[in-house]
């Protein structure tokens, strides 16, 4: 009966998962209140969760167009049109975004189509304006219509990859390079999609093919460096870094790619050189640019520049407030601290044991590698996590928990115990990691039993005492640990008794 109760409680954790329609309605409410930053964020999330809902894609496409992101807007609106080709409004906006991109033939075609479908429609005046403009502006340079097809396909693949739908992206990109065998950006993106699905050799083979056919392709070299870094191929990475050090790109696109790659693989000085050179020349980047500039600046000592870059990022994406890569890094960090050991964190969060994964996410919350690890599509896999593991990941990402929700309240208290142990320990070393591992085994079982974790100091003292009493050949006393945590011996005894029942003994 007790096991059944625990199982039911475990299954009830984090039961509500918002869908696309939920975020779509939140976006509309935000628009009504003129909160356009929030509206954009919610509509983007709605489009990610509902990629086959034409009305959501349409609205997000319009917002992307208003923001000047015409490639993304075109892909969203074109997809909405392909889902519902009889919707006249979609046809008009497809004409408008085509005009924004210089796709003159498409702009004219869809404007005429709209007027045929709805001669007295809401946008009939605007459609006629588009046709008049095209007719009288004879000096408009025709845009290669093939470029429109390439752009739509690449934008669709990009969106698939952003949403973790790598098999879908692979399908689009494979068809694209078959049709356009010298479209090197598609090869580079396909190689990344292969890498993210574990097809490492296929990814590398494709990138070397690009370099044979398109000598010196910087994106291919950078992507090989990223793969070597993640695969810990140190010799290959060192050779690629030497090549990248000799590259002197002129255009912003290649400087951005080079700087972001170098920052990712830890070459912050050189990354800062290229990214800073762009901002000095007036480059106004996207949120990704300011992330890499902030990271590279901070880790090579330019703290003020890093902080200003992060401010620019937060202005673009307020959800990034408080998520600076350096936020939880102590200035006097122990060189042996596991929270700064990328390989240990990856090992923990990919473990087959739930308590290990929870511990791994706690380490991640304090790590300089947080953004890098979270961004990797195969290291963090929500589909494999139970409710407590999802809460642990949310904690690592600075999620604000709802104290009116009992489960979240109890979980947050459990993490406060871990924080107390961290405060006492100073860092998580190889020697002390087993204390934390013991705590996460206990707290996992206690949370499943709806334990309330009322006294944080006493619980930290109890697990510290229990751990050291099992590994220490010398006699230790409760008085010693009670004094260490400024509690009474009686209180310590009470919480030791509380925790003992959550030790993973075999039932008989």
UniProtKB/TrEMBL annotation:
It comes from the Bacteria. PROSITE patterns: TPR. Coiled coil: none annotated. The keyword Repeat applies. Gene3D superfamilies: Tetratricopeptide repeat domain. It holds the Pfam family TPR_19. Keywords: Repeat, TPR repeat. SUPFAM superfamilies: TPR-like (SSF48452). The keyword Ribonucleoprotein does not apply. TPR repeats lie at residues 20-53, 54-87. InterPro entries: TPR-like_helical_dom_sf (IPR011990), TPR_rpt (IPR019734). This is Transcriptional regulator. It comes from Ureibacillus manganicus DSM 26584.
